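TICKET #2291
ISSUE: user wants both folds in one file
ATTACHMENT 1:
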Amino acid sequence: MRLIAILLALWANHHPRSVERWRRPDPFLRYLDWIWDRLPASADNRGALRLAAGLLPPVLLFWLLQLWLDDWLLGIGEMLLGVWALVFLHGPGRVDDQVEEFLDAWREGRLDGARAAAARLADREVEAVGDAQLPATALEGLFWQSYRRLLGGIFWLLIIGPIGPVALRLAWLARDAAAERGGTDELARAADKVMHVLDWLPARAAALSFGLAGSFVHAFDGWRNSQEEPDAGLRELVTAAGLGALDVDRPPSDAEDVEDMLRDGRDLVGRSLMVWVAVAALLTIAGWLY
């Protein structure tokens, strides 16, 4: 059933307008504001306490719902819950649409638009990035977003069921909400620690799948080299493995070459997804998944 949930979610994500209302985080964000506003002022410096108060109730409720639907209609209930969990994790929009937005701006020479699109893909500030490096930044963002919004959730769905993708998305939303509130550095650090724990194993599985779908030797070299930096994190591991799998040394500047590079990146992500689907199928055939 979890294999079917993955396939249905991948299909649904190709029709974002049809599923957009099912993955809006507004209720959770309103809940976060409500509960954080009611915590005592002394909790401001206790990031773990504030994070637990925000995350544990909805995660526990969803886990109970997963247990309740476990055997409903021979597992169909949990399968549908898994589809929603992966669709919810992937929102809003689509990674492919973000890539097209960057490519349109780059082809037309709109560097400001390309920079803004690259920043959204990479999910970080890119003001210090030179114009010639924007395609590489967009490619790194493609790999990171594909992991964050697809591969990480699939990993935890296979391991612990629908609660995995949901917990990932809620932790990320809590991190963003903490940053927007200001004065909540402890809370942001606590959310980062939780996400590091949740991402540690699936990020390595994603890097491995990039290698299997591309150049394994270069992907492994990128993985190893990325970890030699003292401040390297899981983002650097995933993106370095993806770039290595494509064997990208120097990003091109010509519009047509940039488009080819990003298309190759999307193809690599697609092949990596097939690796994950194949693994899920083998686990299902072996009787380790249902």
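ATTACHMENT 2:
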Amino acid sequence: MTAIHPHRTPETAGPTVTEIRAAAEPILRRLGETAAAREAVRDYAFAEVRALAATRIALTGIARDDGGAGGSLRTVAELIITIARADSNVAQALRGTFLVANRVASRPDLPQRDLTLQRLRNGDLFAGTANERTGGASGQVNATARRAGADWIVDGEKYYSTGGLYAAWFSTQARTEDGTVIRFTVPFDRAGVERLDDFDAVGQRLTASGTTRFTEVWVYGHEVTETEDDVPDNPWQGSFAQLYLAAVEAGVAARAFDDAVAFARDKARPIKHSSAAASVEDPYVRQTVGQIAARAQAARAVVLLAAETLESVRVHTGPQARSAGAAAAVEVAQAGVIAIESALAAAELLFDVGGGSITNRDLGFDRHWRNARTVANHNPRQWKQAVAGAYHLTGAEPPTTGLF
């Protein structure tokens, strides 16, 4: 492996944010044009995702001195919303890669940081999950890791391996014989690693979020990156992961707005008792489109504001990092509530723009609500609201489970 120089010059840095966005634009246009048809027949966007990876899209938000594209966390959030506006399935499938990139951008002490950065610069995609369906409480790790000299042999199954069919690398956890939980990253083509396309939710059907099975998988000692005892000053490291979900919801709301406008302009007809000659002149169609626009704007606004707050945490260390991290986690949770509710409302209001024909299956407009609903169920918004209320009323810190 060639080490990444910590002070890379602009001449050898990666592509800029502007260059990445320009290269991604035609790919995202294709994704948007084909999203409904692909979801109807379970057709994964392998070519388009490979093309997005080739733009090195996940370098967005990583400093130029590190060979990244530059840009703030707000820039990253804007990009996620744009991807989700084209196809929320693809945005969700890229989540693992952007989570890895965010850790590189925000943690100079990240284990194997140079190696991970090199993989991102190569355009590699990542997936990862600790989730299991093997019994026990949510979050319980039942996958096992037993010693083999300096290495480990891992057995177990992980579910919600979002983006797994697209990715080159998989990060997860296993419990050792003495009960310690280790975290590691292995290539998907490692012997004994099996990807199953068995995700069967009502929405987000093409996120490749099924099972990853480990059968006698050899994990080398240097591939173990962290243990459960590694606790940073800001323990709310999951805040970006939650911001990402909120950004996906904002993208769904934006796409519902796009489809409402296009349908009203090009396909809708005024109902018999309307005073308008065209649907775009009908006052209730106008009101509905205005409502959808407001919902989409609200979702986008809270996500971008939370992104700015979350980035401000990075300058702090010690107790200040903990205090700022808790406040940012609450703001991200609040943004998630608004983004979820805005996306669900926008997706439902879309159907008020037209008559019976707007429900035709070939349009696939029902996918917006199904996708928003599925993303919302990752982390119940009732908990987010209750945690935010407790913080404001009593100063209680949010849980450090990664869900806030």
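RESOLUTION: both attachments delivered.
EXTRA DETAIL ON ATTACHMENT 2: The longest strand covers residues 151-158.
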